[in-house]
Amino acid sequence: MGIYNLVLASPRQPNAPRLMARHVDPSWLKQRGYEIARSLGEAAAVWTAEATAGRHGLALHCRSGHALTIETE
Asked: Among 48, 47, 27, 22, which residue's Cα sits nearest to residue 37?
């Protein structure tokens, strides 16, 4: 069992993502990601599978330009 990270990338600082949460259960991080997206005004965001830089994870993109990702550690 691994550790998962919920990371937020801001449109103002896309190269400086912030670690928002760390947990052993990715479904808990998905719920937390929905809460963060709603606080950014994105009520209809949906998680999608994404592969970046050889890593697989989930991504949630907001209309505000923010992006949340769940990555394995």
From this structure: 47
